[in-house]
Design a protein that fits this description.
36% helix; 414 residues; FAD/NAD(P)-binding domain; 18 strands; D-Amino Acid Oxidase, Chain A, domain 2; 8-stranded mixed β-sheet
Amino acid sequence: MTTNETAPGLAVEPPFACEVLVVGAGPAGSACARQLAERGHEVVLVDQHVFPRDKICGDGLIPDAHAALQKLGSYDEVMAAALPVSLVRCVAPRGGYVDVPGRMAVLPRRQLDLILCNAAQQAGARLVAPARFEAPIVEGERVVGARLKLGERTHEIRARWVVLATGAVPRALIAAGVCERQTPSGVALRGYVKNEAMVGRISQLQLVWHPRLSGGYGWIFPAPGGVFNIGAGLTGSHLPGRNGRHAMQDVNLRQMFDAFCEVHAPARELMAGGTVVGEIKGAPLRCSLVGAKWSRPGLLVTGEAAGSTYAFSGEGIGKALETGLLAAEALAPGLADAAAVRERYEASMRALRPRFALYEKAAHVNHRPWLADLVVWRANKSPRILRRMSGVLEETQNPGRLLSWRGLTKLMFE
């Protein structure tokens, strides 16, 4: 627990009007609220929980998160609390592995989100929590505010713009009339384990592929204080079902988690000799910038509500921050021209989409874990391939070129 971890916003009487109402104080919402408040806009930031609060996540901050935090102005504070990490260890089914260098860190979301939420408030945003989004207030076709639930009573806030940053659970999206797919595109289960004996033995982000984890992977991420984030999940797992609809792959996540602890010796040792901190919990994921409309008149959708998680890796913090900043950049030039705001935001989101499509294609490795053996084998023999893997992590290389069928064929001849 850091010195920042004080509850910044117990339930307060919210205003009846503001310029921008941001719903959800995770990375996307807090980033958006801070940017707008710093530019002089009257911003109300609401969340259904009092901070600090837990959030189910892998907690990994990979290079895109570092870049977004630097742009936001929170990088130094976050890194002072986080555990820096310099390698991602990719472990293949046969036990071979390759260590990919990169600029990374780990910080539990309980601390990260609190830092970001505090920074938004310090910039001038007003936090109201706990407050649950119930429905938009609509006049004609335009959203002009929101109805919130505060305990047993309902409160209405009028706003020139509403920004939904409500995460993967689709309830708010459905209420706002922007949900295009209710089923998640991935699911994950994670826990925290304190095990001082493993400090130093697990010093990198570990990602593990194995046939018993087919459709996904397992992970162990070292966090500050001798605590490890351990989990297993499915990403890119929405499969065509009847009538073209999407259905989640049928899997028992707890069994998948237990299988991970059986097949990966460090996970087995971590659990056997450690103490589980809190509960092992699961959560849905929304990936690939699909599943929700990005806007409607008077309303923008950002962060994981808009599908800001990568299908291949399940990483979402960096892109949540990035889309939150894009929402602020679309609004900042002027709130009055609704068409221009939507055009700016939709254009910036479309510009991101090809990158997500590449990771969607690369996600087939999760369903064919034996391909990880090929990639690891070749990367250990070719510094060039290892550099390309590092480039994928840094987003300077196209993951589709490395992990597509064509790219995997080329691996055999480089």
